[in-house]
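Let us begin with a simple case.
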Amino acid sequence: MNKGITLYKLGMIGLLILLLLIPLMMINGLIQDRQNRRDEVLHDIARSSSYSQQLSGPLLIVPYRKFTKVWKPNAESPVRYQETVEERGRLYFLPEQFQLDGDVQTEVRSRGIYEARLYHADNKVSGHFVLPRHFGLGDDFANYQFDQPFLAVGISDVRGIENSLKLTLNDQEEDFVPGTDVPLLGEGVSAALPMESGVDEKRLNFAFDVRLQGTGQLQITPVGKSSVVNLVANWPHPSFIGNYLPTSRGISETGFNAHWQTTFFSTNLQETLNACAANEVCKAFKARSFGVSFISPVDQYLKADRSIKYALLFIALTFAGFLLFEVLKGLAVHPIQYALVGASLALFYLLLLSLSEHIGFDLAYLLSATACVSLITFYVCHVLRSVTHGLGFGAGLGALYALLYGLLGAEDYALLMGTLLLFGLLAVVMVLTRELDWYAIAQRAAKPAKAAPEVSHE
């Protein structure tokens, strides 16, 4: 009988924990819904302005016509006749030297309670091409005729171009026109170049300024045999992305600066371009890029989602604390009282989500935790019939919330901190109950309960 009463209480506590999973799952679903709604609004803002930007190029393209004489059989005579076949194609040249110096300024665009971060990047692009003798065709050069060459620059979202583009080529100025006419670059701009005979090697110096507006990310394809990229921005939380990390960088509270340097040996871009030239679309060319993401690292929905993953642990530890007071002080706590405290713990996550959308996650966490700890402390003082025990219980719960906040901030050490927390709590329980007579507790639980005394103020 005594054993049955003990198992009954443990079973009720276990059932309450399982039932509390229902509101926790509903709150978790609400977090996902709000996050999806936020993403839709950010995508809508980007659609109305411009998406992430990727700058690919410049490439120098020389269209050609190749004439080849072939012998064909004559149906009316055994003597073959000669015919000239015309083949059209293009020669692609990457810069010998490519340099980009960018100055990025960010701004916030709001729609309702949601915010998107846009950037404006002033980019100064310069470098030079080296056209080899006979365009690198060797002895076959005489069989080619060349049309007007042009320079093409890929820009992933041309809506973000904020200035009129002018190309400076060997101290001469040329106008850019919309479109690249190069499928592997996609959208962008191009500029016609003076005709080149290709008889001798020639160096072509180029320079142009392009101001780009974008959302989220800025990426650059290092097209030069030697490429140097320098970015300076007023954004203090950069996330460097792509295939190459900066060779040097500096981050402060007011912004960051980063320096990239690559060569053909590291990018293998020339071989990639040769393979892509035969295809209309080639993702491998643009994939060899690097850049920076301007997405805010403080994502209240992500942190709220991470925090609710610890909800079951919180509820179990709180119920274990109640049960420990029952055992050590000989008190009787009704399952409904367990349920009310569990509901307060679950409501913390809904309060955290709703507040964080308006005042930020850190302040929302402080206010939500303070409100829940205060409510539970007030209630537990009466449940345990002792102000001292109630305040002690509230202090322990407040320490748990502080530890949870530390777990959310220390992503790399979350497992270690969580394991140490559980081990420490287990050690405390074992120390407090090391001399407890569990059989006597079961016998005491079987006796009729006495009238509950008034709340003491120890």
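The second case is a distinct protein. As before, the sequence precedes its structure tokens.
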Amino acid sequence: MSAKPSLNVFLCAPRGFCAGVVRAIDIVEHALHKFGAPVYVRHEIVHNRYVVEGLKRKGAIFVEELDEVPDNGAPVVFSAHGVPKAVPAEAEQRNLLAIDATCPLVTKVHREAEIHFRRDRKIILVGHKGHPEVIGTMGQLPESAVTLVESAEDVAALPFTTDDPLAFVTQTTLSVDDMAAVVNALKARFPQIVGPHRQDICYATTNRQEAVKEIAHKVDAFIVVGSPNSSNSQRLKEVAERNGCRSAQLVLRASDIDWSQLQDIRSLGVTAGASAPEILVEEILAAVGEKYELVIDTVTTATEDVSFPLPRNLREKVA
């Protein structure tokens, strides 16, 4: 008989890698296989230090700007978060071999913004200031064409009138509930505002948040596996706390666990952000399993079968 106390673990499904992250990592690995090291990557390909360090060991070199990339013919990959138009323009001007790993769902938001701009609408972007995806989306259009709002309070301060032609788009990794509050404020103040035909928050963000909501009120504590700079992972922690879990923590590795939050618990929820690999979930469960006798129950709220093809230029090279 085990001397360890029993712990019911509710494992969220879906969790972990989304199709956009899988595609982005595959792009770097295919480029390394085809062209050899080094392959340069502008910004972290996805927001997960474990993934980035693994690609570094294979020969990827991560840079923040293109001026760090030498003119030696090595490929340069743009991250899944998307980049301002000035970045591929600079790459083309320098004759760099550019490979775009922007998630297709982020590209969809870029195209929406461009269409609104061509129709002479003033564009409002709901998102988090400074996030690479927001920088990339705002960078699709001339400066001042897009106005960023982060909250309903920001909506109240907007300088527009109800007569202005307005449209909104959103960051793909927001809290579904937070986004709804801001969008409701926009629609209340500007009844004629035009929005996306389908919401911009991606399927993976929505599905992972719904899975957390399903079990948050049933558990004593929650662990979200992911990086601190991952927007969708941070949102999962917030969703757990807002939906009845008194203690939630975001951890990248087992060494990051705050064990004081797990004392005397009888139930634990576990999920992973869209850029966190399953091997880290297994590492976390193994660490918890050293202290508790685990009874694991997987709670499935959606089934995902989404996949995205590689960029055409890399697809042709690989073929």
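Residues 19-35 form the longest helix (17 residues). Residues 22 and 57 are 18 Å apart (CA to CA).
Keep these points in mind for the review questions at the end of the chapter.
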